[in-house]
Amino acid sequence: MAVRLGFIGTGGMAGAHMKNLQTFDDVEFTAMCDIVEGKAAERAKKYGGTPYTDFSEMFDKEELDAVYICTPPFAHGEQERIACENGIPMFIEKPIAVRLEQAIIINDYVQRSGVITSVGYHWRYGGDAQKAKEILSGEKILGALGYWMGGMPGVHWWRVRAESGGQHVEQTTHIFDICRYLVGSDAKTVHGVAARGSMTDIPDYDVDDISMVNIEFKNGAVANIASACAMEGFGRVHLEVFCRGLVIQIGGGSTVNRKGQTEELKGQGFDRDRVFIDAVKKGDSKKILSPYSDALETFKITMAASKSFETGKAVDL
User: How much is the pTM?
Assistant: First the structure.
């Protein structure tokens, strides 16, 4: 029996999931919802399903086995509540919100309902990350350096702090998350600094041009993660994890360096969509690597960083 899917938000990230999911023989596209009617209709024409502009109407009219929520950060909340009340599993694209209070409320819905959730932290599912996790399992992890440095995405909401949270929340969240995953610990203390002023020619821009965040983890490891969206013709997107005599890099050509000898980092990865669909079919979420409650811990780090940018003080979690 095919898993009947609804989509809320049908933009670029949703399209990537649809393209992958259409190769599954146990998936049926049942509904496409977007506030832009033409986008929903276009996706429905290509992949199937009924187009909607109102997700409440979609939930009322359709029998769904699962829903993909691929909206911008500021648009989360009500659709998750309705899905939880109807017992519908959710795949939610990151970041999960733009305010910590909203994410905590959604997590309460999830915990009370018991619905299966998966958040789109796809770096965790990569073969390089899986191999790195295996190697690091027997090591004393000292710290990490992470980067998401490049240009500014073109969508308008990205440059508005109230709608995206800023680059560290919206893009660099992948680096914060894979750092948490590999270090194997939640954060204890977060301190960050940020600078602006080079992007004054861009209308409605009020996010940081560059930021740097220091993290102390509960297991004693430390990390520094940098974000920058003012670069032109330059990109640095990866994480380095440091142990005695061992350095692992994820992203940017993943490698492992043992006492000066470097080799490519390879392993068996997983398809995050396949894992989610299988979890829905079996009613078993054990293979999902980033359920909502875990993604919330990553979100807490980025929200603590935002607070630290404003106050200049370290934030204890």
Answer: 0.97
Neighbouring residues of 113: CB distance < 8 A, sequence distance ≥ 6: 84, 85, 87
Alpha-helical segments (H) within 184-291:
272-282
Spell out where 43-169 has E strands.
50-52, 66-69, 90-92, 117-119, 141-149
Q: Six-digit token pair at 286?
A: 């054990």
Q: Where are the domains of the chain?
A: 3-122+272-290, 123-268+299-316
Is 292 in contact with 96 (CB distance < 8 Å)?
yes
Residue 291 near residue 117, CB atoms below 8 Å: yes
Per-residue b/e over 243-258, b at no fewer than 16 CB within 10 Å?
A: beebbbbbbeebbbbe
Enter the tokens of residue 172: 């660099």
Q: Are 170 and 299 in contact (CB under 8 A)?
A: no
**Which CATH number applies to 3-122+272-290?**
3.40.50.720
CATH of domain 123-268+299-316: 3.30.360.10
**Nearest residue to 18 (alpha-carbon basis) of 26, 29, 8:** 29
Q: In what order do the strands lie in the sheet with 255-258?
A: 261-264, 255-258, 246-250, 236-243, 141-149, 222-228, 210-217, 187-195, 315-316
Look up residue 238 and give its two tokens.
């990866």
Give residue 283's region: left, alpha or beta (phi > 0; psi -120 to 50): left
39-93 pLDDT per residue, tens: 999 999 999 999 999 999 999 999 999 999 999 999 999 999 999 999 999 999 9
Q: Chain-centre distance of CA 100, in angstroms?
A: 15
Per-residue b/e over 178-215, b at no fewer than 16 CB within 10 Å? bbbbbbebbbebbbbebeeeeeeeeeebebbbbbbbbb
pLDDT in tens, 259-301: 999 999 999 999 999 999 999 999 999 999 999 999 999 999 9
- Percentages of the chain per state (helix, strand, coil), in multiples of 5: 40, 25, 35
